[in-house]
Specification:
Number of helices: 8
Pathway: Amino-acid biosynthesis; L-histidine biosynthesis; L-histidine from 5-phospho-alpha-D-ribose 1-diphosphate: step 1/9
Cofactor: Mg(2+)
Distance between the termini: 29 Å
InterPro entries: ATP-PRT_HisG_long, ATP_PRibTrfase_cat, ATP_PRibTrfase_CS, ATP_PRibTrfase_HisG, HisG_C, N-reg_PII-like_a/b, N-reg_PII/ATP_PRibTrfase_C
Oligomer: single chain
Helix content: 25-40%
Enzyme class: transferase
Bound molecules: adenosine-5'-triphosphate, 1-O-pyrophosphono-5-O-phosphono-alpha-D-ribofuranose, magnesium ion
Order of helices and strands: EHEEHEHEEEHEEHEEHEHEEHE
Subcellular location: Cytoplasm
Structural class: alpha/beta
């Protein structure tokens, strides 16, 4: 039987969360230390542990069928490749930054200046679009040090908390793009492996929906139910069960994680009691 070949970063910022999400979709992987390839025990899948930066070419060549990769790397090296799912972790920006003392306020102010970066294609794309002429210095890491050692007037690199910029006396002046981990596929994927990735994607979507929501249970007097139900639309409509206590009901529903605290405040204000909130492992809709 055919197996889906999926690339995952060997080590680095994406590795742990990539392996976690595979585990959460119920895939067990035999993981020997320093193994570059591993098979799943209960799903037709082989994991290849690769460098993030090498993955676009492997996808293009069909060496792997799919990959969990930073979207920023695809924008830099794999604009032709297909993103099928956004995975919600490793969120970051790719930004332009300059020394705090610099008068530059936008990318335009770097006309004729030197920019250090590990993402030359991305920067060039933005420079071309804005008809800006700047000189790129391509370096592979520690980009934020470049202005301090006189190598560049500005940089383009990944920003997350902003602490690396801060520690190096830099300020962000323009966000070129936002990125997160994504699932991408090879244009050469076989029909057989496409059906396997469809199954994997279905499972991933149920885990991602689960992560985005919470299950809420509460008790409420029957005369308040109508108003409470308006706040809690649920997946379809909330479950209402009678309590042993006369005139009271228990209500079960799903709420979005982002507006969870606001909803809880509203529920309390409308007379809800004994509110329990639980994480959701999977949501299959
Ligand atoms: N500080 C950060 N916060 C959040 N996400 C980040 C951060 N830095 C990088 N990322 C994301 O994680 C990905 C992997 O970053 P990491 O630094 O581990 O690898 P790398 O050195 O770019 O790649 P390689 O695997 O080729 O060595 C990046 O492409 C980006 O999408
Ligand atoms: O805004 P922050 O939260 O400080 O994160 C940004 C830093 O994180 C990444 O570096 P990383 O630590 O991955 O080191 P690397 O250069 O070796 O990849 C990135 O290249 C930035 O330097
Ligand atoms: Mg890094």
């Amino acid at each position: 039987m055919s197996k889906l070949k999926i690339a995952v970063q060997k080590s680095g910022r994406l590795n742990e969360d990539s392996m976690r999400i595979l585990k959460e979709v119920g895939i067990s992987i035999d993981n020997g230390k320093d193994q570059l390839k591993a098979s799943a025990r209960n799903f037709p899948l082989e994991v290849f542990y690769l460098r993030n930066g090498d993955i676009p070419q492997y996808l293009r060549d069909g060496v792997v069928d799919a990959a969990i990769i930073g979207e920023n790397v695809l924008i830099e090296k794999g604009n032709d490749l297909n993103i099928i799912e956004r995975l919600g972790f490793s969120k970051c920006k790719v930004s332009i930054a300059v020394p705090k003392s610099s008068t530059a306020k936008t990318l335009k102010d770097l006309e004729g200046k030197r920019i250090a970066t590990s993402y030359p294609n991305t920067v060039n794309q933005f420079l071309d679009k804005a008809s800006i002429d700047a000189q790129l210095h391509i370096i592979n890491g520690s980009v934020e040090i470049a202005p301090n050692i006189g190598l560049a007037d500005g940089i383009c690199d990944i920003v997350s908390s902003g602490s690396t910029l801060f520690k190096n006396g830099l300020k962000e002046i323009e966000v070129l793009l936002k990125s997160e981990a994504v699932l991408a596929t090879s244009p050469r994927i076989s029909q057989e492996n496409q059906t396997i990735i469809d199954r994997l994607q279905f499972r991933l979507q149920s885990v991602l929906k689960g992560r985005a929501n919470k299950y809420v249970l509460l008790n409420a007097p029957n005369d308040k139910l109508e108003e409470i139900i308006k706040i809690l639309p649920g997946m379809n409509s909330p479950t209402v069960l009678p309590l042993a206590k006369e005139g009271w009901s228990s209500l079960h529903s799903v709420i979005n994680k982002n507006d969870f605290w606001e909803v809880i405040d509203e529920l309390k204000a409308k007379g809800a009691e004994g509110i329990l909130v639980c994480p959701i492992e999977n949501m299959v809709l």
